[in-house]
Amino acid sequence: MAINKESTSFTFGFAIVLVSVLGLILATLSEGLKERTKDNIKIKKQLDILSAMIDIEKEGITRDNAEDEFPNYINLEDAIILNHKGELKKTDESLEAFDVDIKKENRDKTLSNEDKNYPLFIAKGKKVDKTKYIIPVVGKGLWGPIWGYICLKEDMNTILGVSFDHKTETPGLGAEINKAFFMDRWKDSKIMDEQGAFVKYEVVKDNSGAIKGDSKIDGITGGTITSKGVEEMVNRSLKIYSNYFRNLNSK
Predict the structure, then answer these.
(1) Are 70 and 125 in contact (CB under 8 A)?
(2) Contact 142, 226 (CB under 8 A)
């Protein structure tokens, strides 16, 4: 029997076969690229963590050698997980600090504060002169999630450096949070005062007269909402970690 290629049934049948074949191809590609994607995410995270502490470009650290260089700065066995009160958290032994997805936890509105995890990475590898502490932060910008890492000096109080990033903020405005001129403004500020109380940061519209180490950070012109998003995520996160450092220093 001849097939009527002009018929509606042939058109629908051909479309179904085509969609099924394409779906199978895409599923196969997705499965085949799963491990590569996982590795890329891991490397990007390693680079972001290191960027808060050192100039990775100056140190010659790239995507190609990040996995080899990372242990020279941070031993993941030293990393810990805190609870929402800044206390060491009892977790499933299979959960490691590096594997905690704080972006996912921040998006999950059904997750209670008690169930959230707060990783802390401790840098004291062979290429680190003095112990450093790296804190992950996550929040919300104008158009989507923003995140980053804050590195504290050996005193567990003074910011050595930060690395912020985003996915969908406006180019030339909120997207500037990952530029050096903005991230450098956080350096040398302290997260606690002399009594050990948390110092709340304020990202202001114009702080051109700010002095180095001030807790008032000059924001990004035209990127007010994203700047305030950074302010919120930094304060919310650092307050928790400051509890841990204060208690640690009091022992």
Answers:
(1) no
(2) yes
Supply 34's token pair: 């799963």
Q: How many CB atoms lie within 10 A of CB 73?
A: 22
Q: What is the CA radius of gyration of the chain?
A: 23
Spans of all domains in the chain: 74-250
Q: What is the pLDDT of residues 193-219, one digit of tens each?
A: 999 999 999 998 765 555 566 788 988
Question: CA–CA distance from 56 to each of 14, 48, 51, 244 (Å)?
Answer: 53, 9, 6, 28
Nearest Cα to Cα of residue 134 among 114, 148, 145? 148
Count the neighbouring beta carbons within 10 Å of the beta carbon of residue 75: 15
Residue indicated by tokens 């590795």: 39
Please tell me whether the overall predicted TM-score, pTM, comes out greater than 0.70 for this model. yes
Order of strands across the sheet that contains 132-140: 80-82, 118-123, 132-140, 145-152, 159-166
Q: What six digits make up the tokens of 54?
A: 């050192």
